């Protein structure tokens, strides 16, 4: 365990600490969905560090300390987390979430995030989405849903998010404090994309509801939007 707090890894430090054998979070007993989610959320960004320190109204301090001291801090300090540390968290999630399969079965990452953020830590939803003519909906992450696009062979995240929002007729009600995006699902038999290029920056200008945007013809403020 690493009782001290460590900042997220950046630039050369990230390469030095995370590259090589025996790095990352050790997998065990269908833990891949949780391992990848935890690595993505905490290894190189502080966007959700409030989950580790802030005493939310409904916050379970035991789960919070396991997450901080047994997973995030060792990951940032040495670049490696043992499977037993993640199992310790999974056992607590099983107990709090009243679901016996958290310790042995593969889950949807969204189910894990909803449980730990909403029920255990009591964090307010990170995203506000709205479909045309529908009520506003709150959520903690956005899963990309889309039909197969023949022109998208090796897409980047920007393209996937834009296609998904367009096909679902969705808009962001406000700029999110943290935008967690789940890539298109795939199984052993079928993969929609063999590779997805990470977009290091995400432009959400055209995804915002009622946001002033530039006309692509004259350059003035646009008054109409054509999908």
Task: Write up this protein.
By secondary structure, the protein is mostly helical. Helices cover 35% and strands 8% of the residues. It has helices spanning 11-18, 32-42, 50-53, 61-78, 83-97, 109-120, 157-168, and strands spanning 24-25, 80-81, 127-131, 137-139, 142-143, 170-172, 181-182. The strands form three sheets. Strands 4-3-6 form a three-stranded antiparallel β-sheet. A hairpin with a 5-residue loop joins strand 3 (127-131) and strand 4 (137-139). Keywords: Cytoplasm, Hydrolase. GO terms for molecular function: cysteine-type deubiquitinase activity. InterPro entries: Papain-like_cys_pep_sf, Peptidase_C19_UCH. It holds the Pfam family UCH. This is Ubiquitin carboxyl-terminal hydrolase CYLD.
Q: Give the SSE string.
A: HEHHHEHHEEEHEE
Structural class: mainly alpha
Strand content: 5-15%
Number of helices: 7
Share of helix among residues? Answer: 25-40%
Radius of gyration from CA coordinates: 19 Å
Number of strands: 7
Q: How would a textbook summarize the main sheet? A: 3 strands, antiparallel
| N-to-C span | 51 Å
**Sequence of strands across the biggest β-sheet:** 4-3-6
Features:
7 helices, 7 strands, two-stranded parallel ribbon, 227 residues, 3-stranded antiparallel beta sheet, mainly alpha, 35% helix
Summarize the structure.
Residues 24-204 form the Peptidase C19 ubiquitin carboxyl-terminal hydrolase domain. With 227 residues, this protein is mainly α.
